[in-house]
Write a structure and sequence with these properties.
By secondary structure, the chain is of the alpha+beta class. It is built from 26 helices and 34 strands. It has a ten-stranded mixed β-sheet with strand order 2-1-3-4-5-15-14-13-11-12, covered by helices on one side. Helix 1 packs parallel to helix 2 and helix 18 packs across helix 20. The longest helix has 18 residues. It starts with a helix and ends with a helix. The relative contact order is 0.07.
Length: about 1050
């Protein structure tokens, strides 16, 4: 033992001449990189794995083709670099020691790991891995397993032809598999483990009777690995069940290799190896000084016990944590590592991992060992140390990108959902739910609870989201009722729907994009809420248009905009938002000094829904009218920063078991789709929301408890993320995963289309080479009417059905504020080469009759909605009835230049026409050609041969200099006695002649079109054209 200690100490001294320098910087470990090992050049600069093997006490890079191949007599250093969402690189270092590795090489690997960490800035967590006792995180890098090879750098038989020898392996693990070779004899077998027998022509998997389906399925991944690695994928595979006798042919062949069948003895559960079982003991904290560990006595473990100038050991039985303060010297860090190694040399102690941690970069597991750990770090982590290391490396010509301080990446969150589906909304009242009309389904009250069902076309079938929304002031009775009713709806769909639970103020991006326009009023309409208010706070009133209301306007665009009613006081204002303030007789639009043109446009749009038909007085921050301040009770201080929603972070996947009200979770590192087992329940934690994935064959008693499990997970906060109890929760069923869940995986839908349990599915693939295929389910027909947004639906007196645009292909656009027919038609013209004069085209489109009262904010062509997520090969659905109706108006004739028809507008009624024509009171309609049979296909070839006949200008109808018909001003204003028929009420001004337009607006049409929308709307409102 003394020789080992002497060798280790001498190695430390040998390495210290390369790493340490005379000066120590406060809060940092001083490092000299003059003799940086060239093998580490460029290490940790990009995401992925890097591996070095210790050869002659030096690190030598291992070729990528040999990653995952470890020799029992060697030591390795493994660097895992991960790019995290804030833009920086995270490093984790493992040093792996084979069971035949010499003490000298083991010590060298430990010291070189310190050197590598110093080069990376002293922030990496370092793990000691020993063959046969590797951490699950380490094994996850080399899925499905690692099978160490005998020998080492010298004396290995790699590359040499050898006679095939039967090998027996034991497999342990449900999520990652520990594989160990055992003697090829019957006594090695037992009922509690899974064994793989590798023969020259066949691989057998023996499943112990006490093993689970999940363990058997994971072991099959090892069988596939052996088959591909050592048999070139060409050998038979057989599964043998414990207890099956010679009657089974494969079982008989298996037992024949062991000399015949014989019963296996029961495993001895008594601990007769003399080792101390300390896996369940409480953690012990030691202070290390002068190479000695001194126990600290304390009633509880708290962060305050750790001093930044000292090193500590935390002995947790299966793990020994080495905590190093930021003010400690390199010699102190080496000394504490040596003491940790000494603890593991006690023969009576079971194997354990050593995990070295730097102050300020503690792992969640380390923090969880303490009774109390502050949420915010109380140690200022300086960038000085990392900057110095980066500067030293840069002088040597090395890339230091990964060492520099990262700039947080600011991204607009994407919804990853098709927002062209069909939406229905119910308000909950006690144990009943009431379907809301189109005009009201985007207007919520914060004292009520709601249920919504959203159906949209997925990649292979209809997808459904059934969600609940709880207002901040809603009562518990309504919340429980909403959950119960939503559960029944999901059950009626045979659990093939995603269930969502959302709280007022914590909605995810998917919710806002589904609704597009969303308003939250104060108060409530449910009888339970009204009774509660009358008994407790009768002064609280439900919103009324005749009262005072202050609304904060937020969102990112027309497809994502909200108006939230806040208290009508000055402290509710914020310089980063626009607000709408009104009472019974007046309305103000307040614009914060930090708002953008997009914010201002959203305020104009929302004005149509909150207080339509009233002229708004624009108030810019700093120049408000006295009446404005009077309505909100006078001036006071208010914030200026925008509200930041919880960001999405790198996801963590957990397997779950729930029994007797207790939730146990186990994190799965470097997860893939194959980790999701049909018999289990998993939680995907994205920090701002969580998913509960439910397998098809989960225990029937567990499924009804999924929401309870989610709440328990949030309450336990296993990653110490300070979860909000009101964070969104999605419950996802196997086979019906939405795209915003599958995006975290490399997803293959066909894998969950197979029948059987996890073991049976994988056995079919491994044994028979079957590739899963997906039978595409038939889609149900969604409503064909176009959805032009909540706002459009609310203001339209003609549309009573809540539907959405049927432009499902991501390459097509969905436009707000136009008629459904025009939207569908315009989508087919997008990719055609139109050589018409641009002004002519603009006039044709601009004067189109939408047939839908959209509101004041659509006087100019609205922006198109961005593609929300990419799809490949999305089929274009058949044309809707609206398109077919328009297509019937086409007739084949020689090609013409103008493919988009002009919209004809009617002149003032003529007395002569009224007397002579019985149809004078009817609006003229375009002529149609009924000779064509069938629906005209919207292809480029057919479009080239299409022409639309325009109505001839009738007698006494006026035509302006642009070739378009127009109406006089008196017939175009809102509330006209004799209103112009069949016009687009959102573009009344376009029906004025150029002369009358200039007379009324005091500018030309061209100058007007260049103005911002909100200015256009103000002018139109003043002229009663809005």
């Amino acid at each position: 033992m003394s020789n080992i200690k002497h060798t280790y100490s001498s190695l430390l001294k040998q390495k210290s001449s390369k790493i340490t320098s005379p000066k120590q910087s406060k809060n940092n470990m001083a490092v000299s990189m003059r003799e940086l090992d060239p093998a580490f050049t460029g290490a940790g600069q990009k995401p992925g794995l890097e591996i070095w093997r210790i050869e002659n006490f030096r690190p030598v890079p291992v070729s990528k083709s040999s990653y995952g191949k470890f020799f029992m007599a060697d030591a390795y250093i493994i660097l895992k670099t991960t790019a995290i969402k804030n833009g920086s690189l995270k490093h984790e270092i493992h040093y792996w020691l084979g069971k035949d590795t010499s003490p000298e090489e083991s010590s060298t690997a430990a010291v070189i790991t310190v050197e590598l960490d110093a080069m990376l800035g002293g922030r990496a967590v370092q793990y000691r891995e020993v063959q046969g006792n590797e951490t699950e995180k380490f094994l996850s890098y080399f899925k499905p397993c690692i099978i160490p090879l005998k020998g080492g750098l010298k004396g290995s038989f790699e590359g040499q032809e050898r006679e095939f020898v039967n090998k027996l392996f034991v497999c342990k693990g449900k999520h990652v598999v520990h594989v160990k070779e055992v003697p090829f004899m019957r006594s090695s077998l037992n009922h509690d483990d899974i064994f793989i027998l590798d023969t020259k022509s066949k691989i057998f998997q023996f499943n112990g009777s006490n093993t689970s389906i999940q363990e058997r399925a994971k072991a099959l991944e090892v069988v596939q690995y052996i088959k591909d690695t050592y048999h070139d994928g060409k050998c038979e595979v057989a599964a043998v069940e414990d207890g099956k006798l010679m009657a089974d042919a494969e079982a008989g062949e298996f037992w024949g290799l062991f000399g015949g069948f014989a019963p296996l003895p029961r495993k001895n559960t008594s601990n007769g190896n003399g080792k101390i079982d300390i896996t369940s003991t409480s953690p012990l904290l030691f202070f290390v000084t002068k190479g000695q560990a001194v126990a600290l006595s304390s009633e509880s473990l708290t962060r305050e016990l750790l001093e930044t100038s000292k090193c500590y050991l935390l002995d947790c039985g299966n793990e020994i944590y080495v905590w190093m303060g930021r003010d400690t010297s390199l010699e102190s860090r080496k000394s504490v590592s040596s003491v940790a190694e000494e603890l593991l040399r006690d023969p009576s102690r079971p194997k354990a991992h050593i995990i070295r941690i730097i102050e300020g970069f503690e792992t969640v597991m380390f923090k969880s060992k303490f009774d109390k750990w502050p949420q915010a770090a109380d140690v200022a982590v300086s960038e000085e140390g990392r900057g110095k290391v980066a500067a030293l490396l840069k002088r040597q010509g090395l890339n230091v990108k990964g060492l520099m301080k990262a700039t947080p990446v600011k991204e607009e969150p994407l919804p990853y959902i098709d927002c062209t589906g069909h939406l229905q909304v119910w308000r909950v009242n006690g144990k009943e739910k009431t379907l809301l009309s189109t005009n009201d389904q985007f207007k919520f009250y914060n004292g009520d609870c709601y249920i919504f069902q959203y159906t949209y076309l997925g990649d292979h079938k209809d997808e459904n989201i059934i969600g609940t929304w709880f207002g901040k002031k809603s009562i518990e009775e309504d919340r429980n009722s909403a959950i119960s009713l939503a559960n029944k709806m999901v059950e009626s769909l045979k659990f093939q729907a995603t269930m969502a639970r959302m709280y007022d103020g914590k909605e995810p991006i998917q919710f806002f994009v589904i609704f597009q326009t969303f308003i939250v009023y104060k108060g409530g309409l449910s009888s339970g809420y009204k009774n509660f208010i009358s008994e407790n706070t009768p002064e609280e009133k439900t919103y009324s248009e005749k009262g005072i209301g202050l609304f904060r306007i937020q969102g990112s665009g027309p497809e994502n905009m909200q108006a939230i009613q806040v208290d009508p006081v000055a402290s509710s204002l914020n310089s980063s938002y626009c607000y709408i303030l009104h009472d019974a007789d007046s309305v103000f639009t307040w614009t914060g000094s930090l708002t953008t043109t997009v914010d201002q446009e959203l305020a104009e749009r929302m004005l149509d829904l909150i207080k339509a038909n009233m002229q708004s007085r624009v108030q810019r921050e700093g120049s408000e009218a006295e009446q404005f301040w009077k309505l909100i009770g006078g001036k006071s201080q208010y914030p200026g920063q925008k509200f930041i929603r919880e960001p999405e972070t790198d996801p963590h996947l957990f397997s779950c078991s729930f029994s007797n009200g207790k939730l146990k979770v186990n994190e799965i590192f470097n997860f893939t789709q194959d980790d999701l087992m049909t018999e289990d329940l998993f939680i995907l934690d994205c920090h701002s929301y969580i998913f509960i994935w439910v397998g098809q064959q989960i225990d029937s008693k567990t499924r009804p408890q999924t929401l309870t499990i989610a709440e328990k997970f949030i309450e336990n906060d296993v990653l110490l993320e300070t979860f909000s109890r009101e964070m969104p929760v999605y419950i996802v069923s196997e086979g019906s995963e939405p795209h915003f869940f599958t995006r975290f995986f490399t997803w293959d839908t066909a894998k969950f289309a197979m029948h059987g349990n996890s073991f049976q599915r994988k056995l079919a693939i491994v044994k028979n080479g079957i590739t899963p295929s997906l039978d595409k389910a038939k889609r149900r027909s969604l409503p064909t009417a176009s959805r032009t947004g909540s706002a459009a639906a609310a203001l339209s007196s003609q549309s009573q059905t809540r539907c959405r645009s049927m432009s499902f292909s991501p390459d097509r656009v969905r436009v707000r504020g136009r008629s459904p027919a025009f939207n569908a038609l315009a989508a087919n013209f997008e990719n055609l080469n139109n050589n018409n004069n641009s002004n002519s085209n603009n006039n044709s489109i601009g004067n189109s009759s939408g047939g839908s009262n959209i509101g004041r904010n659509l006087s100019t062509p609205p922006p198109v909605v961005k593609k929300l997520f990419p799809k490949s090969g999305s089929p274009v659905p058949p044309k809707s009835a609206a398109i077919a109706a328009i297509s019937s108006s086409f007739e084949k004739s020689p090609p013409v230049q103008n493919l988009i028809p002009k919209v004809v507008k009617v002149s003032p009624k003529s007395k002569t026409n009224q007397q002579t024509s019985p149809d004078a009171n009817k609006s003229p309609k375009p002529e149609t050609n009924n000779k064509s049979n069938g629906t005209v296909l919207m292809s480029k070839r057919s479009m080239d041969s299409m022409v639309i006949k325009e109505d001839t200008v009738k007698e006494n109808e006026m035509e302006d200099e642009e070739g378009l018909l127009f109406y006089p001003y008196g017939r175009l204003i809102v509330g006209a006695v004799d209103p112009a028929p069949d016009i687009d009420v959102t573009k009344r001004e376009t029906y004025l002649s150029s002369a009358e337009f200039k007379e009324k607006f005091h500018m030309t049409k061209e100058a007007f079109s260049k103005m911002p929308k909100w200015k256009q709307n103000r002018l139109k409102t003043a002229l009663q054209l809005f």
